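Dear all,

This email documents one entry for the complex benchmark we are building for the journal club exercise. For each entry we list the sequence lines for every component of the assembly. Then comes the predicted three-dimensional structure of the complex as a token string, followed by one or two observations. Please use this as the template for your own entries, and keep the labels exactly as they appear.
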Amino acid sequence: MGKQFFSGIVKAIVPIIIGFLLLGCAQRDDKGPKKIAVVISTLNNPWFVVLGESAATRARELGYETTIFDSQNNTAKEAEHFENLIAAGYSAILFNPTDAEGSVSNVNRAKQAGIPTFCMDREVNSLEGPVTQIISDSFSGCVDLGQYFVRQMNKSGKYVELLGLVGDNNTWNRSKGFHSVVDYFPDLKMVAQQSADFDRSKAMEVLESVLQSNPDIDAVFCGNDAMAMGAYQALVSVGKADSVMVFGFDGSQDVMDAIKDKKIMATAMQSPKFMAQTAAELADKYLQGERDMQRKMPIAVEIVTQDNISEFEAYGSEE
Amino acid sequence: MKNSIKKPIKYLLIALLVGVALYNSVYFEPLDERHIAQKKGVFDPDAFAQKFMETKLTGLPAMEAGQFMEALEQDLEQFTAEKGRKMGISNDYYFIVEGNGIVLDIGNENVRIKLEGVADSELLIATDFIFGNAIREGSGMASIGDFQNTMDFNSISVAVNNRVRTDVVPPFLNEVEEGDHVYFKGAVEVNTKHPDLPNLRIIPLILEIE
């Protein structure tokens, strides 16, 4: 009888204890510092490393615990990060999406869970999901870069365009800005346009392949600096580095050095530090109650050439 | 005998069923109608630009060019911050200006004019290299916050610049000569980091030789 009574009590109490334990795990720890997640599309590119670290550093300065998540340019991986950070009770997300369309559902899921998202550098195709989107004005940057390209080419010649990730709006804003200029000059012929996913190694492979069928090109326009460096390596390997002009976009350290050394013609400077810090500061303001924020905040980029490079530092300024 | 009657009925029924299934599986429609249906609900920057050029230009508020130049020379930073439009965080400010001038020089990319009634004040009217966002931002014809996809927003600049290139510049260039008196209304960009006031370029919206 006593044994049965004891067993009954255990059976009744154990589920209650387990329940309390689970509830305790799920509840946010309101006593410690709030947590901000920094979700970055890829940490395989130094530019995005600077973006992620600058966001995390500024958030820490503002009193938050931070964790950086690497999506490895994979929306499935990104979705996994969002599930984990929602369960872990983060207060806000500083987000660099992998895909303008594919990342919308992740932002919406976070919003439903009460976690505000602040996009950095890349946008998602949603006005309702993120609180705000701090993005480079890639289109205008490439309009300026396109005009510089046309003048350097004396309005004629053959060129190759290396595109970034096809699912990213920046890829098309840059390409569209560039073509909104270059396509008005009929003697400028694009002999190939291929994606190299914003990746240095892939850009090298793609350009090596293009050069086999088009050995007489005059220029390569690349949607980011990593691809510009890959393109330059491909040109070095076939002995054409001095005769083919390379143009990038970002303002990363290696391309800024290459412009100084007259290996690369130009890039467009966008500051990951400034974008990241702005995102962290807006997230802090939002968490303190401010709600009056622009849905999209474009940040101007500037053209860096061999003539004006002394005015700039890699990855831009912090102001 | 019974079987031989049933067989044709059976085949007829099968053929009928297959026919009905095929009829409901395949639809034919003219390609033009299909394209129109696909474009419904999709932003059309060309139509947006056309409507702007056809209905908004005359009433578009503009600063008088002489006063604009004087204000820039007096206090560029304050004037641009107070009166200019800009997109996001940038050193580029945009304005719509109008005025009268005398043609000094017809170049490959610009026509240089001297503003009437203002001493030593010159402007360039762009006739080539018509690119960028000066008209869109100067006029405030669209706001980035209203567009889910920034590419649609940027397409407006491409479309409106195309209209200037095809509708505004050619008739002017065909007739203009040095010494002509012209009226202009257009958009201008002023960069506060590297201001180049002697070479400000107007992207023209209206050009009239008087």
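Observations: Chain A touches chain B through 30 residues (CB under 8 Å). Residues 222 and 281 of chain A are 32 Å apart (CA to CA).
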